[in-house]
């Protein structure tokens, strides 16, 4: 939170049980069975809570990230829990940490999403967040019929209508509607119930939701958007926004742009938090950390390297090239995965192997606890971010080192909390409880 005399950074953990690095699951200290190992995942969530993190974050995709079966068989990306189901389990073994899951507006219905996240908010005592995405992987369309994958503009148009319906459903009952009066026999006040009565281009929803208003009013809305259309949407609706710039200057520009867009639509910029993705690989010394990174990269199979580059760049002709040839010139595109590769390629003229290994690790920052704390402090104080979404190359040792070594260092520097501020995710993030949309 930046409001107040001693601003402190937010931290969330991208809980990819198999590790964020594509070969993380193969590391000798990793758990190769982690993807469906509930006790292990619960232990990681509890470790994040011991580190006073705002939230654990569960990604999701409704199709395998890679299409080639031989390539997919070499990664953990083809196996993971449905995230809201897993969060329900984690809500019973944690007490204060936020629980955030991804759900797409492209291949869901508003009623389903509203009901699931309202239920999770009640189960967790007000600790739930919804990461709103419009789908990224075109192959998701094949899981739901034969219709082609919608364009970015079409996906955002649907999302705009979708989130409006969801908020109305969350507000089906007023805060004071549930009487539960045994004497009069009145369970709720019918005058405090509102039908949704929505009819738009994409949805017709009468409502109401069959659940009282969530403890937080609305679960916290997480979002990511880098294109002009995505930034507009995020500035209107997002409360915590994920970003992935690798250049500090570009990140400062993005930070300033989002805050200005939020202010322009009447929102308090302090209520729109920006979190940069950050993947620390930690060891006692820089030399040990560098050696660990080299070891991880050596575990990435060549088939996986090729797929990491060819997947987002299907229009590029790679025939006759080897991994050690320079990456071909890239054309402009509206695919955010391609945008990331463009950013990597723009730094110099890298080889295909170098780009693939960057993608495999997705910007891993390698160093000692002090080196990791230095970079977090630099970006936070720039200011280029309000916090960080941490993704660890493999678990559990890197997460444990972060909690035991980096968190105390950040606290010594006055950059990080020493206790939770409240009981709900909104309270810990310093976000207000939304008013009912009917009021």
Short recap of the structure:
The protein has 439 residues and is α/β, with parallel strands linked by helices. Helices cover 37% and strands 14% of the residues.
Can you offer a commentary on this structure?
- There is one protein chain.
- The protein has one domain: Luciferase-like domain (TIM Barrel), CATH 3.20.20.30.
- Helix content is 37%, strand content 14%.
- The protein has helices at 38-50, 69-72, 83-91, 110-124, 152-170, 228-237, 248-264, 286-297, 302-310, 336-345, 352-361, 369-381, 397-412, 425-429, and strands spanning 10-14, 55-58, 98-104, 128-133, 178-181, 186-188, 198-199, 204-205, 220-224, 240-243, 273-282, 364-367, 387-390.
- Strands 1-2-3-4-9-10-11-13 form an 8-stranded parallel β-barrel, surrounded by 7 helices. A two-stranded antiparallel ribbon has the order 5-6.
- The protein is globular.
CATH domain class: Alpha Beta
CATH architecture classification: Alpha-Beta Barrel
- Assign an overall shape: globular
Elements, N to C (H/E): EHEHHEHEHEEEEEHEHEHHHHEHEHH
Number of domain modules:
1
Number of strands: 13
Largest sheet: 8 strands, parallel, barrel
What is the CATH topology classification name?
Answer: TIM Barrel
What's the rounded overall pLDDT mean? 90
Share in helix: 25-40%
**Termini gap:** 28 Å
Tally of DSSP helical segments: 14
Structural class per helix/strand content?
alpha/beta
The CATH homologous superfamily: Luciferase-like domain
Proportion of beta-strand residues? 5-15%
Poorly predicted ranges = none
Measured on Cα atoms, how large is the radius of gyration? 22 Å
Strand order of the largest sheet: 1-2-3-4-9-10-11-13
């Amino acid at each position: 939170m930046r409001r107040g005399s001693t601003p402190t950074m937010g931290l969330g953990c991208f809980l990819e049980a198999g590790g964020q690095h594509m070969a993380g699951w193969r590391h000798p200290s990793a758990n190769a069975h982690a993807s469906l190992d509930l006790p292990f995942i619960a232990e990681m969530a509890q470790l994040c809570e011991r580190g006073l993190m705002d939230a654990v974050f569960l990604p999701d995709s409704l199709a395998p990230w890679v299409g080639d079966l031989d390539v997919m068989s070499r990664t953990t990306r083809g196996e993971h829990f449905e995230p809201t189901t897993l969060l329900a389990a984690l809500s019973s073994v944690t007490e204060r940490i936020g629980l955030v899951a991804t759900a797409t507006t492209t291949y869901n219905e508003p009623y389903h999403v509203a009901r699931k996240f309202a239920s999770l908010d009640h189960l967790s005592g007000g600790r739930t967040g919804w990461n709103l995405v419009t789908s990224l992987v075109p192959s998701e369309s094949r899981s739901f019929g034969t219709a082609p994958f919608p364009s970015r503009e079409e996906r955002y148009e649907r999302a705009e209508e979708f989130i409006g319906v969801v908020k109305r459903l969350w507000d089906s009952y007023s805060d004071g509607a549930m009487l539960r009066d045994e004497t009069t026999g009145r369970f709720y006040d019918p005058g405090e119930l509102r039908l949704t009565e929505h009819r738009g281009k994409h949805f017709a929803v009468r409502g109401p939701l069959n659940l009282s208003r969530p403890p937080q009013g609305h679960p916290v809305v997480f979002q990511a958007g880098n294109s002009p259309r995505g930034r507009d949407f995020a500035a209107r609706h997002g409360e915590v926004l994920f970003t992935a710039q690798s250049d500090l200057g570009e990140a400062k520009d993005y930070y300033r742009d989002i805050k200005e867009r939020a202010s322009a639509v009447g929102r308090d910029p302090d209520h729109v938090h920006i979190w940069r993705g950050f993947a620390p690989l930690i060891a006692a010394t820089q030399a040990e950390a560098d050696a660990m990174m080299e070891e991880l990269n050596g575990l990435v199979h060549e088939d996986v390297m090729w797929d990491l580059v060819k997947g987002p760049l299907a229009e590029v002709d790679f025939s006759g090239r080897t991994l050690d040839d320079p990456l071909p010139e890239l054309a402009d595109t509206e695919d955010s995965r391609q945008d990331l590769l463009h950013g990597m390629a723009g730094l110099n003229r890298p080889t295909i192997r170098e780009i693939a290994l960057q993608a495999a690790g997705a910007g891993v920052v390698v160093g000692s606890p002090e080196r990791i704390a230095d970079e977090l402090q630099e970006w936070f104080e720039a200011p280029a971010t309000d916090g960080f979404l941490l993704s660890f190359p493999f678990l559990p040792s890197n997460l444990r080192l972060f909690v035991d070594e980096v968190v105390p260092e950040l606290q010594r520097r006055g950059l990080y909390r020493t206790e939770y501020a409240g009981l709900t995710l909104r309270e810990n993030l310093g976000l207000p409880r939304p008013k009912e949309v009917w009021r």
